[in-house]
Amino acid sequence: MQLNITFRQFGASDSLKEYAREKVDRVNRLLDRAGEAHVVLSLERHLHHADITIHSGAWVLRGREKSDDMYASIDLAMDKIERQLRRYRDKLKSHHGKEKVHHRQDLVRVRHDVFEVHEPEEAAEASAPAAQVAPAAQAPVAESGVARLVRTTHLAIQSLSVDDAVMQMNLMNNDFYVFQNQQSQALSIVYRRKEGGFGLIEPHLPDAPVAATGT
Description:
By secondary structure, the protein is an alpha+beta fold.
């Protein structure tokens, strides 16, 4: 399995590379076809973030976690992946012979934007230290209540059944998943409900009005 490890906001560490490699290699015991894996380790606001993505045929498994220790974050992210992998192991094996369904030409690509909104108290805390600095040296502070674009992701839409879309959502440990419904051919979204279970959103076109006829 090909493994890529990216370090953000802190220097690369050989010991962390080896630890992440050992942890990711463990999924080979559970996967018949582990293709490639990408591990992103980052430091944000004194928290250690681990984002691990593993490709197995047409399926994508993902685990993201954060803690006060990078080794613990890697463990927690891999625990999420292995939990879903054990849950769907048999189903993944049965789908490997049907992957041609998933590799149809992508019909749609969608953009997923993530925004951050500064609350009033956060803005006040951010501006407090700057008040002690000369005006010329002050850094601009985000205006309270204004959304700031954090990141943008482009997603290739696959044609799946609703059940397979729910499985892919769970394998990625996401709260929602965008796909093309094989039954209706509509661009659809499955999402996790707070009350349990999942919901499905897809466009509904009202019946075309019947043209009036003269007498």
